[in-house]
Amino acid sequence: MSKLVKLVRAADRARLATYLIALWKLFKHPQTPRSAKLVAIAVLAYAVSPIDLIPDFIPVLGQLDDLVLVPLGVALAVRLTPRPLWEARLREAEASRDKLPRILWGAGVIVVLWLVLFGLFVWWAASALVS
What distance in Å separates the CA atoms of residue 97 and residue 80, rounded to the nearest whole number? Predict the structure, then answer.
């Protein structure tokens, strides 16, 4: 892989990280519309979740869902947000790009959500085997 391709990929990852930080700041801002807050938190939860809709070990499709769903979610959140509000959050994110927010409660919520979903699946599978 050429150095240029590696550089472009690293720049894209850094830009995506900036957008995710901006989404977090947008979620926390009191003037953000409720619909934009819901989309922002859903995109953030999907981006940081260790479990994907399509597992990464499936060639092409596993990476494609991350490359498509996260940017589409960011674009939707941006569309639902007033332009000056989004631009201000993006500038804040660019200024604090090196300092990531600590979201321990968010990680806990995601872990609990996946455990509940796993428990429901086990309960469903057990009831299907018994019947």
Answer: 23
Q: Are 80 and 36 in contact (CB under 8 A)?
A: yes
Are the beta carbons of 113 and 39 closer than 8 angstroms? no
Measured CA to CA, the distance from residue 24 to residue 16 in angstroms comes to 12
Q: What is the pTM of this model?
A: 0.65
Any idea how long the chain is?
131
Residue of 81, 86, 54 lying closest to 70 (CA atoms): 54
Per-residue pLDDT 10s for the chain (131 aa) are 455 445 445 445 568 888 888 998 999 999 999 999 999 998 888 887 777 777 777 777 777 777 788 888 999 999 999 999 999 999 998 887 656 566 666 677 777 888 898 999 999 999 988 86
